[in-house]
Design a protein that fits this description.
The complex is a heterodimer of chains A (about 475) and B (about 240). Chain A has about 475 residues and is mostly helical. Chain A is built from 21 helices and two strands. In chain A, about 65% of the residues lie in helices and about 0% in strands. Classes of the chains: A mainly alpha (about 475), B mainly alpha (about 240).
C-alpha cells in the first residue's frame, strides 16, 4: 500500500472540505459572529494538509482496491476530524466527544445532535453544520470526483469503493457518467428546493441550510423546533416532496428528468418504497387521529411528515413522536431500519435489500413446495446472483446484529431500553431522531460520553455500509 | 503560519477577556452594589418610620434623613450606570415607587392621627416599602443574570484562547510527521539508493538501476548517472 498516493487523494478531499469551510468563514465574517476565527483556522489547517501532498506527490495512473478502500475510509475519518475543529474551538456546548459526535452525524447525514440550543450557534457555524450534510450526502469521494477533471482508473476504483454495492449495479452507465449524473441531480435538486422554500417565505440562509439537509437526507435544522418552527403547510409540503425524491435512486431521477418518467414507476423497488411510505402514513394517521390530533387534516399532516422524514432517513421534525402511541412508534422503527432506495442519499438497510430479502424468502418457500424446480430470484427483469443474495442476507444480519450490540452497550451504560434501541437504529440508519430521550424534539446530550462514541461508530458503520469499515480495520489481512 | 494565527487569535481572545472582566466590574458589579445600598437605606427608613410611629420623633427623623441621602446616593449610581437593555425601565420604576414611599413618611407622623396607627403603617407605608424593595431586587437580579452570562462568555473566551494553541501543536506534530515522510520518501531515500547503487556498480559492476518518481533535480541526477554508467563501462579496457 503506497502511503503517499493515499495522502494525495485524501488531501484532495480535505481541500474540498476547506472550500466549504471558507464559505462558512465568509458567512461568519459577513455577520461578524464568534465563529469567524474557528472557521478561518480550520480552513487554513484543512488547506495546508490538502495542498501539501499535492505539491509532493505526482499524479498516479492507477491505485489498488486496497488503496481505494483506505482512501475512502480515511477521507471520511479525516473529514469528520477536520469537521469537529470549528465546533471544539468555538466552545459553548461542545466538548471533544460531543464535537466528534456532531461532526460524524453531519458528514454521515445522520442529523442526530447533542445541542440543547441550536439557535445559540453563530450563523457561520450553523452553515458549516449543514454543509457537512451536503458534502457527505452523495459521498465525499464521489463529490470530489464529480468536480475534478477525469481521473481515469483511480476514479473508477474510488467510485466503486464508496458507492453502495447495490447502487453500483443499478446504474447502467460507466463510472464517470454515473458520477456526473449523481452530481447533476444532487445540485439540481438542492437548487430547486432552495428556490421553492424561498417562494414559501423562508429566508435565504434557512432555505439553503434546509435544502442541504433535505437533499442529503440529513436532518440538521438551524432551528430548535426543526421544521415545526415555521408552522407552514407549504414549507412542509415542499420538504416532504424533496425528501421523497432524495430517497429515490438518482439514476432513475435522471432518466425521469431526461423524459423517461415511466422508468421510475417501472422499478419494483421504487414502487415498494412508495408503497411502504404510503402504508406507514395511513396506519399512523389512523392511530394518531383521536389520540393525538382531533382533526383528520392534522393527523394526516403530522403523520405524513414524520413518516416521510424517518422513511427517507432525513430526520426533520414537526411533532414530538416520543409521545406518540407505541404502534405508531413501531411503524417508524421499521422504517428507520429500512429507509429508502440504494443510489440515493438515504441510509438504512435500504428498500432494495428488503425487496431482495422478501423475494429470497418467497423463493425458499416455493423451493420447499417444489424441491425439483429451478427458481431464480429476480428483481424486475434482472436475475440476481446467488452470491448477491447471500451477501444481502449477511448484510441484513450484520446490520441488525450491530444495532442490537449497540443497544446492549448503551443499556449497560444506563440508557433506557427505548432510547438505546431507537437511538442505535436511528444512528446506524443515519436517520437521526429515535424515541424516548433521543426523540424528534429531543437530542443526544443526555447519552453518556462512551455512548456517544459508540453511536458515532454505528453512524460510520451505517454510512460506509459495514463492510467498508471492517475491511479497513482488517487491512493487515489483505493479500 | 498556523502558530501565528493561533497566537493572534489567543491574544485577541485574552484581550477581550480583560475587557469583559472590566465591563463586568464597571457595569454590573457597580449596579449590584448600588442596589444593595438602596436596600440597606430602605430598611433603615422602615425602622425609622416605626420609631416615628412609637413617638420617637428626633431619632426617627435623623435616621430618615441619613437613609434618604444614602438611598439617593445609591440611586444616582444606578441611574448613571444604565448598561443593560431593559435596565432604564427598572430604574424609572424604582424612582416612581420610591417617590410614593417617601411621600408616605415625609409628612409629620408624631403628634398626628398616624402615630401608633399600625393599620396605616401596614396598608400604606409598609406596602410602598415592599414595592420599592421589589423593584431594587429586580434591578439586582437583572445585573446578576447579566454578570452570569458575561462570566459564561468569559469561560468561552478563555476556551477559545487555549484550544487553538493545542490544535496548532497537534497539527504541527502531524504536519512534521507527514513532512518527514515526504522528505524521506522523495529526497533522502532516493539519495541513499543512488549512493548504494553507485557503490555496488563500482565494487561489483552490478547495473545501476534506480527509479525516481519525481521530475526534479534528483531525477536529472539519476538520469545523468544512468547515461554516465554505460560510457564508463565502454571506456574501461576489457578484462
Amino acid at each position: 500500500m503506497r502511503a503517499h498516493v493515499i495522502l494525495r487523494y485524501v488531501g484532495l478531499v480535505l481541500l474540498f472540505d476547506a472550500l466549504f469551510l471558507l464559505i462558512s468563514c465568509l458567512i461568519s465574517g459577513f455577520h461578524s459572529d464568534s465563529a469567524f476565527f474557528p472557521l478561518l483556522y480550520t480552513t487554513l489547517i484543512s488547506t495546508l494538509f490538502g495542498v501539501f501532498p499535492l505539491i509532493f506527490v505526482p499524479p498516479t495512473t492507477s491505485i489498488t482496491n486496497q488503496e481505494g478502500f483506505t482512501i475512502v475510509i480515511l477521507s471520511w475519518l479525516l473529514s469528520c476530524l477536520v469537521g469537529l475543529l470549528p465546533y471544539i474551538m468555538w466552545g459553548g456546548e461542545f466538548t471533544l466527544t460531543s464535537a466528534w459526535f456532531e461532526s460524524v452525524s453531519g458528514f454521515t447525514t445522520t442529523g442526530s445532535s447533542i445541542l440543547t440550543n441550536v439557535e445559540a450557534l453563530p450563523l457561520g457555524l450553523l452553515f458549516w453544520r449543514s454543509a457537512t450534510h451536503w458534502i457527505g450526502g452523495i459521498g465525499i469521494i464521489i463529490f470530489v470526483l464529480s468536480v475534478l477533471p477525469h481521473m481515469g482508473k483511480p476514479a473508477m476504483i474510488l467510485y466503486r469503493t464508496e458507492m453502495s454495492s447495490l447502487a453500483v449495479d443499478n446504474f447502467h452507465y460507466r463510472s464517470q457518467k454515473t458520477i456526473q449524473i449523481l452530481a447533476i441531480i444532487y445540485v439540481g435538486l438542492t437548487l430547486v428546493e432552495t428556490i421553492s422554500l424561498l417562494l414559501c417565505g423562508m429566508n435565504l440562509f434557512d432555505a439553503t441550510t434546509h435544502s442541504f439537509a433535505t437533499i442529503a437526507t440529513g436532518g440538521f435544522s438551524p432551528k430548535n423546533l426543526s421544521i415545526g418552527y415555521y408552522r407552514s403547510t407549504s414549507i412542509e409540503i415542499v420538504i416532504m416532496v424533496f425528501m421523497i425524491l432524495s430517497g429515490i435512486n438518482f439514476g432513475l431521477l435522471f432518466a425521469a428528468v431526461s423524459g423517461n418518467i415511466s422508468e421510475i414507476w417501472k422499478s419494483s423497488i421504487v414502487r415498494y418504497y412508495l408503497f411502504a411510505l404510503a402504508a406507514g402514513i395511513i396506519l399512523v394517521t389512523l392511530k394518531a387521529h383521536g389520540n393525538l390530533f382531533q382533526s383528520w387534516t392534522d393527523a394526516l399532516r403530522y403523520s405524513a411528515f414524520q413518516i416521510i422524514s424517518v422513511g427517507t432517513s432525513t430526520g426533520f421534525a414537526t411533532a414530538d413522536t416520543s409521545i406518540w402511541p407505541p404502534f405508531a412508534q413501531l411503524v417508524m422503527i421499521y422504517l428507520t431500519l429500512q429507509c429508502a432506495c440504494a443510489g440515493s442519499t438515504s441510509g438504512g438497510i435500504k428498500a432494495d435489500r428488503i425487496v431482495l430479502f422478501w423475494k429470497t424468502m418467497t423463493k425458499r418457500i416455493k423451493k420447499m413446495q417444489h424441491p425439483a424446480a429451478v427458481i431464480k430470484v429476480k428483481i424486475d427483469t434482472l436475475v440476481v446472483d446467488d452470491d448477491v443474495v447471500e451477501v444481502n442476507i449477511l448484510y441484513i444480519s450484520f446490520y441488525v446484529g450491530i444495532v442490537f450490540l449497540s443497544t446492549i452497550l448503551l443499556t449497560a451504560l444506563g440508557v433506557d431500553i427505548l432510547s438505546a434501541f431507537s437511538g442505535s437504529a436511528a444512528t446506524m440508519g443515519n436517520v437521526g431522531p429515535g424515541f424516548g430521550m433521543v426523540g424528534s424534539m429531543g437530542n443526544y446530550s443526555q447519552i453518556p460520553d462512551i455512548g456517544k462514541w459508540i453511536l458515532s461508530a454505528t453512524m460510520l458503520l451505517g454510512r460506509l455500509e459495514i463492510f467498508g469499515l471492517i475491511l479497513f480495520l482488517a487491512a493487515k489481512s489483505w493479500k | 503560519m498556523m502558530l501565528v494565527v493561533a497566537g493572534v487569535w489567543s491574544i485577541y481572545e485574552l484581550t477581550t477577556v480583560g475587557t469583559s472582566v472590566q465591563r463586568m466590574l464597571d457595569d454590573n458589579y457597580k449596579s449590584i452594589n448600588a442596589g444593595r445600598t438602596m436596600i440597606e437605606a430602605l430598611e433603615r427608613e422602615d425602622s425609622a418610620v416605626l420609631l416615628l410611629l412609637s413617638g420617637n420623633w428626633e431619632q426617627g427623623r435623623s435616621i430618615l434623613g441619613s437613609a434618604d441621602s444614602l438611598f439617593q446616593k445609591g440611586f444616582t449610581i444606578a441611574q448613571q450606570n444604565v448598561t443593560i437593555p431593559g435596565e432604564p425601565g427598572f430604574v424609572d420604576e424604582i424612582r416612581s415607587r420610591y417617590d410614593v414611599y417617601r411621600g408616605s413618611w415625609k409628612e409629620p407622623i408624631v403628634g398626628t392621627s398616624k402615630e401608633g396607627n399600625l393599620n396605616w403603617y401596614f396598608q400604606q407605608v409598609h406596602q410602598a416599602f415592599l414595592d420599592v424593595r421589589l423593584s431594587v431586587e429586580e434591578l439586582i437580579a437583572l445585573n446578576d443574570q447579566t454578570m452570569y452570562l458575561t462570566a459564561s462568555d468569559l469561560k468561552n473566551k478563555a476556551h477559545r484562547a487555549i484550544v487553538p494553541g493545542i490544535v496548532a501543536i497537534l497539527a504541527g506534530l502531524a504536519f512534521t510527521i507527514i513532512f518527514n515522510f515526504f522528505i524521506n520518501y522523495y529526497i533522502v531515500s532516493p539519495i541513499i539508493k543512488t549512493t548504494a547503487a553507485i557503490h555496488k556498480f563500482v565494487e561489483t559492476g552490478e547495473p545501476f538501476n534506480v527509479q525516481v518518481e519525481t521530475n526534479d533535480e534528483l531525477f536529472q541526477l539519476v538520469s545523468s548517472i544512468q547515461r554516465l554508467v554505460p560510457q564508463k563501462r565502454a571506456s574501461e579496457p576489457p578484462k
